Amino acid sequence: MAETYQEGSGSGADFDLSQFYQIFFEEAGENLDQMEHMLLNLDLVNANDEELNGIFRCAHSIKGGSATFGFADVAELTHQMESLLDRLRRHELQPIPQMVDVLLESADASRSLLARHQAGEQGEAVSTTDLVRRISELAAGRVPGGASAPVAPAPAPVVAAVAPAPAFVPAPAVSPGQPRQLQIQIGPLERPEQADAIKELFRDIPGLGSISDLPGLEPATRRFAVETTSTNDDLLDLFAFHVAKEQVVISDGVTATAAVEPVVQGGDTAEVPYGFFHDAPGAPAEVVKVPVAAVPAANGASAVVPKAAEPRAQSPAQMESTTIRVAVNKVDQLINLVGELVITQAMLAQNSRGLDAGAYQQLLAGLADLDRNTRDLQESVMSIRMIPMSIVFSRFPRMLRDLANKLGKKVDFVTLGEAIELDKGLVEKITDPLTHLVRNSCDHGIEMPADRLAKGKPEHGTITLSASHQGGSIVIEVRDDGKGLSREKILSKALERGLDVSEHMSDADVWQLIFAPGFSTAEVVTDVSGRGVGMDVVKRNIAALNGSVEIDSAEGYGMRVSVRLPLTLAIMDGMSVGVGDEVYILPLSSVVESFQVNADDVSTVAQGSQLVKVRDEYMPVIALEKIFQVPRFDASKSSNIMVVVEADGSRVALLVDELLGQHQVVVKNLESNYRKVPNVSGATILGDGTVALILDTGGLVRRARH
Amino acid sequence: MSVMEKSEETTASGAREYLTFRLDQEEYGIDILKVQEIRGYEPPTRIANAPEFIKGVVNLRGTIVPIVDMRIKFNCAQADYNTFTVVIILNLRQRVVGIVVDSVSDVMELASGSVRAAPDIESAIDNSCILGLGSVGDRMLILLDIEKLMSSVDMGLVAADD
Known about the structure:
Number of domains of chain A: 5
CATH topology of the largest domain in chain A: Heat Shock Protein 90
Number of helices of chain B: 3
Shape of chain B: globular
CATH architecture of chain B: Beta Barrel
Number of helices of chain A: 26
Helix content of chain A: 40-55%
CATH superfamily of chain B: CheA-289, Domain 4
Strand content of chain A: 15-25%
Distance between the termini of chain B: 32 Å
Radius of gyration of chain B: 16 Å
Number of strands of chain B: 11
Largest sheet of chain A: 6 strands, mixed
Structural class of chain A: alpha+beta
Strand order of the largest sheet of chain B: 8-1-2-11-10-9
Oligomer: heterodimer
């Protein structure tokens, strides 16, 4: 992997991954439940393809997740399950009860393995060897246990192996979440200041824990008291960015302190104030007792204690008490109500506009307050649900590094638009599809370093993940500079699978074929990808969010998958413009300028399309009256105002009658009850209760380009 | 709610309740359970490039609802908008749609025996959207499968690939 991300986000990413463990465990649990349910309802004689695909997808999702998080045992087991299920869903095998038995047992085993991982690797792992053997025998078309042995007792030994699992799993579950107290000694170092960078790690990575200084035993070493929930291995990995692993000694807090105490007492008094910090949550209780006598001195000396240490030591405790978990539907209800309030407020503002300011002074002042408060309230409420894309993006660097190492590829990972905020619900649902896309890019897209060099490309492939706002949607792109899609391969594979295809299909239609269930052109099925699940799941998940997936590819140069998500729930700043008797809303973010147009500035090109010259730049003119076929009742009025809008990096001038004003609008989805309308991204409700359409500036710009 | 409960009781005996409305001289019936509410007509916001019978969208308590003028769809001689023009708001499979009709007559209970299959006739709509013909006294009721009618592609309410 490239140095680039290791320096940039590597240190954070390595740790950040653990914050998704919980999500993964929940998801995996749901998938296992679902798989169990489907297995139990599976009709063996007449197995339904959709059901088999569903079970397969569950296994695939668990495998993908556990591979991402490095749970090799679960990944291995589910990989075997997947192999068996794959043959079933291709109708190469007939499902038999033994298969269901072994799959159910494997699900149980996966569950207990996951529970063990969740509990921080404590307790004895369930042995999966027997299960793996039985599954592979079944997948090879043999009934395990041999022909002579009766079939029924076969599961018995495994049940015995699995049964102890629940007994030991809950027990260790008590300790893993508990913070551990550690002493960490670093050194001897040539430059002891290097060790100070470690303190910064604790400050920069939320949830890592707390750290405080302890007096060093030798001048060239540093010692810290650390309270953390992370494992020693995780800590070593983190520290490796600053100091060599060999120079780090991690020891259990309680015992190590005992050995060190004489030093504390015997040390010179200037060191005593550090003892004060043993009182912080980071220090074991025993230590506190020893320096009691020193405490009064410490209080007096507390002014010289480095201040930064204190908030650091206390922050973890505060974090827990300052957040509350609230059901999402309660937040949604709040957001809807605020949306209604905004509309009502806008209506009041509009109706009060004609009032005499002198006679209704108090009323108008009240309305102005209401306006401001509504806005603030709305902003706060909206921010509850929004989380930055960096939360999603930060889980990829680690996954890609492991994956690239495994595949022997060299990959640079670039992320753009991490600050773009996305609705929490969308973030949760977009993570899985994005994981599939990024894995696909790395596995299928990026070539081996030697192949890349042979083709004159840089040895390192680049995978770019970017998020941006476009025309009222959020577009997330996964781009790679790998080999791209092969039209011929896809077409021949589609013919092989009996899909309805022809040589004359457009590229875009050919690319869409890879979304068909079970479609894969990979020659080798690896445990990463190549089975053809993935893309159909991706499409399904994104379609469920009312989004769309587009593929661009150039063979030999790479491909780009764009996921477009609608802003079903959002408030934006809009500029309302009048055309004829109708009102349209432009997203204020895309409005560049507006001006009154002189007939001389507009010139026509052969096909009749118009161009306007704005400060030495010619840009296409779009008359809203024309494209929206606005009926004109009053012939005396005409469009003579241009609004320059920018989208996708280019500009067009929209011809409108008048500019009506700027206000915040609640974006409503037009498609929930109607269909997609060209050049319109949504609708909103104006102050008078009528509906106005929000223009899709991205669509308008694209239209002008063609 | 009382209407729904009552209707569920009567379904057991094979009878169903229909809301009947008039378009010009014709009388139509639709399943009452699909009806959300009945409102007066208010001018909707026009949508460009929509078929003529889609009048536009209105704001129904914060929801954007498309309005279909059934009189134009069914080729009625005239479609005036006055104080008596009503809009029936339908709730069909998560979608809310409003239809403009000349007037709403009443709610009628029809036993399955009094519904006859519609003969093959040529009309402005797909024959499969007509459930049958109900006779009430000397009146003829055209019973519509409103859900099927509204979700058909030529209504333009859903995209062709939906």
